[in-house]
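Here is one chain, start to finish.
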Amino acid sequence: KMKTLVIIPSRLSASRLPGKPLLKINGISMISHVYKKAQEADIGDVFVAAEDQEIVEDVKKNGGEAILTSNNHKTGTDRIHEALLKLDITDVELVMNLQGDEPLMNIDDIQNLNSQMIENKNDIGTLAAKINDKKIFENPNIVKVITEKSLDHSKFPRALNFMRKLDKEINKAYHHLGIYCYSVKTLKKFISLKQSQNEIKNRLEQLRALDNNITINVALAKSSPIGVDTKEDFMAIKKIMEYKA
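Its structure:
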């Protein structure tokens, strides 16, 4: 069976919400909540690739594993690649990149993405959810993906494009979730490529893959978790998670 390694890139200097990974929910930092989620998914070893020593210490204090990476990376993917090299784990074939700011990501969805990648041996896989609220189309903080075929729970179609804003509802447009699974070969190729104009203009690193003919396949997620971009997002997630507890 193909072996998967889960790496969660994390840094304190988020533009919109400084110190985001260490904000606490139920007394535990957001990054440690994500770490525990990844562990529960049980698809492989989990590491946080952090830009800051404080994050490393926090994750370790909460029983997780973390590794310090450079603070010169332009993207999370570069950070993940450095962590992969530093960890020097040779028998891994897939790397799962989980965002540190989506503590409500569904475990079934993580497992499903991993299974699709193992089964289909793709370059890159990601998740997207159905859009139920029209406001999402205009919200530039919520990334949309347009797929070749409609998504359902058994299909794994190609992504045709990613964008931050759509003027109108269109068919086969979904809410893109911050999770990627790469074959190690594709990850190495991806980070050797220069950032594309498209990527820089839209602030979406996945466009670098599409601009270089690297295929991204998309699985349907059961739920669309709120990602944390703003103070309001954080308060909303905190409320949900503390209520559940």
